[in-house]
Amino acid sequence: MEKVEMTAEERREFEAFRAEKKKKEAAELRKLQRATYQQMVDDELAQAVPELRRLSQDIRTVKDAVFGNFQTVLQMKEEVVGFKEDGQFSHTFTNSESTLRLTLGVNTVDGWSDMAETGIAMVRKYIESLATDEKTKTLVNTVLRLLSKDKQGNLNASRVLQLAKMAEESKDEQFIEGVKIIQESYMPTETRRYIRAQYRDETTANGWRNIPLGITDVDLIETEPEPAKPEREAEV
Fold it and tell me: Which among 102, 107, 236 is positioned nearest to 182, based on CA atoms?
């Protein structure tokens, strides 16, 4: 076989051709890999999203069923007492053996009608009339802070409750009437219903374990609940 010798120029051209060929092959491979990746994403999404939609609907169905099943119990309880804690209306039920516990509630956003301003004006007039010296001025300023509004221009419902207790203790008709007007102007907006389910487990710090109900929480098979705040009567 005759050996072919390449000149230096021909060698450079050959090496450049081979490098360009490898570059194109690498580009084609990356293009193929991107297409394969996108196809994998499409296939997995086509399977995962419908399953998650079914899961979401199942959760909604169970949630509706639980609230529906407890509706009569809730109505009976609401006739007796209402609970409000940090803007959340909730009802907790525990079985006779104290082994199962369920909390049904709804998150709310505080809201007030225009009449609240009339009540605020009456309360301010009474409170400011008490400022006769430095000591009472400090007390007045403390009480007036209970009437301060948030960034959305709303009063804090729990502060109004504190104000109501002060009004009852004062025995002053103007103060009491002003607070009553504010309370009657309360118009909370319900946002989302929630459910918390727990079962008795004496190995935990407080004897109860949460049942994970959220898709993020289910990785925590055994989760200890945060110490529960005592519910208080709160009718605004």
Answer: 236
What pTM, to 2 d.p., does this model score?
Answer: 0.61
pLDDT digit string (tens) for 108-162? 888 888 899 999 898 888 888 877 777 677 777 877 888 888 887 788 888 888 8
- H or E segment and range at residue 167: helix 157-170
Per DSSP, the three-state class of 106 is: strand
- Beta partners for 89? 84, 106
| DSSP-derived pairing of the beta strands 208-210 and 189-200 | antiparallel
Determine whether 12 is exposed, middle or buried from the number of CB atoms within 10 Å of its CB (0-12, 13-18, 19+): exposed
Instruction: Using alpha carbons, select from 179, 184, 141, 187 the residue that is nearest to residue 162.
Output: 179
The pLDDT assigned to 125 comes to: 84
Q: Which residues pair with 197 in a beta bridge?
A: 102
